[in-house]
Design brief:
The chain is α/β, with parallel strands linked by helices. 36% of the residues lie in helices and 14% in strands. The chain contains 10 helices and 13 strands.
Amino acid sequence: MNNWKNNLCKITPYVPGEQPTGDIIKLNTNENPYAPSPKVKEALRAYDTGKLRLYPSIECTELKKALADTYGIDTENIFLGNGSDEVLALAFRAFFNSDLPVLFPDITYSFYDVWCELFGIKYKRIPLDKNFYIQSKDYFIPNGGIVITNPNAPTSIYKPVSEIEEIVAANTDSIVIVDEAYIDFGGTSAVGLIKKYDNLAVVHTFSKSRQLAGIRVGYLMGGKTLINALDAVKNSFNSYTLNSLSQSVALAAALDKDYLKKTASEIIKTREYTVKELSKLGFTTLPSSANFIFTTRTGTSAKALFEGLKQKGIYVRYFDKPMINDYLRVTIGTKEQMEKFITAVTELINE
C-alpha cells in the first residue's frame, strides 16, 4: 500500500538562514543593510504594469548590454536567471556530466553537494588547509569539474585571481565555476579570464552588493559554448525565467555603478570596525573580503553565543559542523547595527 511513496525524491535539502520578523537585527543571511539604488525606486515607479500580462523578454537584451559594458565582455557571454542559485543549479546540470567527480572545498557553500545529489553527479570534497585556505595544487587531480566560491563562504577568505588561474589552467579538460557572490566587497573578479579560458564560468548575483535579494537575479559569464549549453538546459525547464519587473529593476541597479561602490565601501569600513572591536574582546576573525566575517573566541562557546544573541534580538549564523563549530558567521550591517552587536557580545561574554 502507498508504494508510490517509495518513488518520491529522497534528498536532504539546503537549509537557509532563519528569516525572523519583528524588531530584530538580522545578521544571518548576508543581506545588504542598505536600500537599493535610488534609480531602482525610479524604475519601479515608471514600470508599466500592463507588461505583466505579457511574457517577459527571453533575451534580456538591455540588462545583458549593461552588464557587458560593466565587465568589458560581449552580451553573448552572459546568462541570466532567477538568482545565482538557479544559475548555478542549471550550470551543474549543463556542465557536469562526466563519470569523474566534481571537486569543491569541504567547507564552502552547502548547496553544492545538494545539487550533486539531486542531479546524480559524483563529487569529492577537497579539504581546506588548517588556516581555512583553498590550496590550488589540491585541484590538480582528475575531475569532472570544479567549483570555487571566491571569497569563500562561510570563511570569507579571498583567493587571488592568479591562484584561480592556476586551477583553471591546470584543468582545461574540465569546466571550472567560480562563484563570486561577494566579490565586490574586497576582491578582484576572475571575469577577465573568460576570454583566455573557454572552460571558465564566473557567477555573480544582484542579491549582495546591489541590494536586490528580493527580486532574484543572478548571472553567469563565460564563453559562448558554455552559454549555449546553459540556454539549452534552461529552455528545457522554463524559457521565461526572468520576469519583466525583475529585468527592469536589475537594469536600474546595474547602471548605477557609483552607488554600488559607495555602499560597498561603507560595508568594508564597518567590517574593519567590527573586526577591530571584536579583537579587543579576544576574538580571532579570519581575513574577510566579503560582507560578512567568520569569528571565534577561545573559551567561549559559539553555539551559546549564537543563542544568547538571538535572545537579545540579534540573529547571526552558526554551523554545527566539524572544524567550524567554534565560529560564528556575522553579516556586516550598518554601523549602528554593528555597535549594538558589539555591545550585546560584550554583555554575553562578561556574564
